[in-house]
Amino acid sequence: MIERHVRNLILSRLGSYPAVVLIGPRQSGKTTLARSLGTRSYDLEQEADRVRLDVDWDHCAATASAGGPKLPVVLDEAQSWPAIFPRLRGAIDADRKRTGRFLLLGSVSPPLMHEVAESLAGRLSIVELTPFLVPEVPQVDPDDLWLRGGFPDGGILLSSMFPQWQRDYLALITQRDLPRWGLPAKPQVTERLLRMIAAVHGQIWNASQVASSLGVSYATVNSYLDYLEGAFLIRRLRPYSGNLGKRLTKRPKVYWRDSGLLHAVLQTATRDDLLARPWVGASWEGFVIEQVLGFLSARGEAFEPYFLRTSDRYEIDLVLVLRGDIWAIEIKLTSSPGPDDFARLDKSAAIIGAKRRVLISRVRDAAEGTGRLSCSLGHFLGVLAAL
Q1: Are strands 40-43 and 73-76 parallel, antiparallel or unpaired?
Q2: Are residues 232 and 157 in the same domain?
Q3: Where residue 342 sits, what CATH number does that domain have?
Q4: Do 246 and 368 fall within a single domain?
């Protein structure tokens, strides 16, 4: 089994909390990872496992964590069976000092988080698992990870699976999962919306324009976006809104979280095809952003991600508020960034008072000065690991 960076974070949280919730997209490896940590596992989407857990409940509640914080009871797809949450609360409250008892898994954030807020607030910690990060698969060319995305079964380990696996994955999500989770749109409408989002990947979100194309209201299309975000398909990156004395963009940027899903929707199956597309720079930008944010999340870092765009065209691709510092990060799909690239970054970074300024590109060798760094994605992840 490939070692996942988030494993140590899960173990640490299990040592401090009675329960941990591991969230993330379907097929990202949650079940495989959880079963390597737990004593018993129940898939709560399956009626047979619900019955088995119901019969075993007294034993599970009494013995969970008897072997220490590394041996929780695993409850997979917990949001599928809301009745489990009051029972969990009762079991935890009966002995609040015992830690590491339950590991809950969920593939959709809003329903799960609603049940957590209602029944388990203050009793657990939340951890997110992303598809593979670059440091987790050092045997894989990072360009292959960019092209095919990070889902374990999506082609990164067996190239022939891409892009058919992604198409099947999205068909399952749109036709079964999203309607079951409450999305009111018909699957055909959702598929059209996904294609539209792919076409504007990395751009400022124009809900009115997309809504007009779908024949729905502005509010409706934004509500659809909530479901896609809750299913870990897309990310809305908020604009930085510090008191800058400038007119700032107030709408978010929208990105597909997994680059392989994006490329499958846009019918891009090879590296040469990808590099020939006019939107390749936006694809690279989104890939780098997800790798950086996923890496920080797996380490348990508290951070706030934004982008910057002013009315007079000052821009920063990724603004990170991390450990009390502001990081201004510009992302370029080039192997030879020039002085002008850093000069523009310096001007934009000065507006928000960012003392750490990073230009991520495809350079082989890093160049570093006081508060300034030009490097590759892999080098930058190493810098974050050394914090």
Answers
A1: parallel
A2: yes
A3: 3.40.1350
A4: no
CA atoms within 13 A on the CB side of 101: 24
Length of the chain: 387
Q: Is 138 exposed, middle or buried (0-12, 13-18, 19+ CB in 10 A)?
A: exposed
Q: Please give the C-alpha separations between residue 99 and each of 11, 13, 71, 106, 196, in angstroms, as whole numbers.
A: 11, 9, 10, 20, 45
CA distance 330 to 345: 7
pLDDT in tens, 274-294: 999 999 999 999 999 999 999
Structure tokens at 93: 């409250």
Q: Does residue 1 form part of some domain?
A: no
pLDDT, one tens digit per residue, over 120-164 is 988 999 999 999 999 999 999 999 999 999 999 999 999 999 999
Of 94, 128, 162, the residue at which a domain comes to its end is 128
3-state SS, 75-103, equals EECHHHCCCHHHHHHHHHHCCCCCCCCEE
Token couple for 159: 């190239």
Is 341:330 a contact under the CB 8 Å cutoff? yes
Domain range for 110: 6-128
Neighbours of 111 (CB within 10 A): 18
For 367, the enclosing helix (H) or strand (E) is: strand 367-369
Within 10 angstroms of residue 313's Cβ, the number of other Cβ atoms is: 8
CATH number, position 108: 3.40.50.300
Alpha helices in the chain (DSSP H): 6-14, 30-35, 47-63, 84-93, 109-115, 142-148, 164-172, 178-180, 187-199, 207-214, 218-230, 259-265, 271-275, 280-298, 339-352, 377-385
- Cα dihedral sign, 72-73-77-82: negative
| Pairwise CA distance, residues 183 & 159, whole Å | 32
Q: Across the strands, what pairs with 140?
A: none
The answer, yes or no, to whether the previous bond of 163 is cis (omega within 30 of 0) is yes
CA distance 304 to 233: 19
pLDDT tens column, 146-156: 999 999 999 99
Q: With respect to residue 139, please indicate whether it lies within any of the assigned structural domains.
A: yes
Q: Are residues 117 and 142 in the same domain?
A: no
CA dist list (Å): 5 to 11, 88, 262: 11, 28, 24
